[in-house]
Amino acid sequence: MLYLGIDLHEEQITINLRDEKGKVVLKQQVSTNHAKINDFFDGILKRSQSDGGYMAILEVCGFHEWLIEILKNYECKEILLVQADTSSNKKTDRRDANVLAELLWNNRFHIINNNRPNGLRRVYQPNKNENEIRQLANLRPHIIHLRTKVINKVRGILRKQNKIQGAPSKDFKTKKVRTWLEIVGLFPVDH
User: Fold this and answer.
1) Is the pTM of this model over 0.85?
2) What does pLDDT average to over the chain?
3) DSSP readout, 81-113?
4) Cα–Cα distance measured from residue 185 to residue 180, given in angstroms and rounded to the nearest whole number
5) Confidence band of 191 (pLDDT split at 50, 70, 90)
């Protein structure tokens, strides 16, 4: 088995690959360009076949989903998504990838036996349906905030033009108010 530590960034990944003995066999930075990332993982898949496959570890960030899909497509046996406990002042991409690969290698037997890894806060990826539901649920408060912001702006314009007292309701979310807003003419047209 091979053990792949990945430090993910927007434009590149930094990797550290170890063999079954824990020896670092590859350190490299790879562009996240589609062709380059696919070539890289194609090489990892071929290289790992004689070793019984590979496992990968990466830290949670706001855009890791695409990389997890690529790892699945390239037959990664186990993908560990972890949350960093602390942050160091001496962080570099290469150090981070090395630390992640070392943690993965040190915990390989725990992971294979479905035990909790030592020194890692594992994060479980939601399935596709759960992820879609989460995204929709997280989107709702933003949409409500934007709606409130727009209503407040419209109220401000109506106050400036001294037209707010003609509103059929104080609640600007009603059908009556929406109809009234179409008629009231917020922005006077110069002739």
Assistant:
1) no
2) 87
3) EEE-S---TT--HHHHHHHHHHHHHHTHHHHHT
4) 9
5) very low
**Six token digits for residue 29:** 């930075």
Dmax over CA atoms of the chain, in Å, equals: 83
Q: Which residues contact 131 (CB under 8 A, 6 or more apart)?
A: 65, 125
CA atoms within 13 A on the CB side of 44: 33
pLDDT digit string, tens, across residues 47-84: 999 999 999 999 888 788 899 999 999 999 999 888 87
Would you say 121 and 82 are in contact if contact means Cβ atoms under 8 Å apart? yes
**Residues 101-112: pLDDT tens digits?**
999 999 899 888
Q: What is the DSSP letter of 54?
A: E
At 15 the three-state DSSP class reads: strand
| Cα–Cα separations (whole angstroms), residue 81 to 15, 64, 137, 157, 178 | 15, 9, 22, 49, 47
Name the residue with tokens 């981070």: 96
- Residue 161 CA: distances (Å) to CA of 154, 181, 187: 11, 13, 9
Q: Higher confidence at residue 165 or residue 48?
A: 48
Which one, of 180, 159, 158, lies nearest residue 169 by Cα? 180
CB atoms within 10 A of CB 31: 13
- Closest residue by Cα to residue 96 from 58, 41, 122, 55: 58
Q: Tokens representing 13?
A: 């990944």
Distance (Å, rounded) from C-alpha 1 to C-alpha 50? Answer: 9
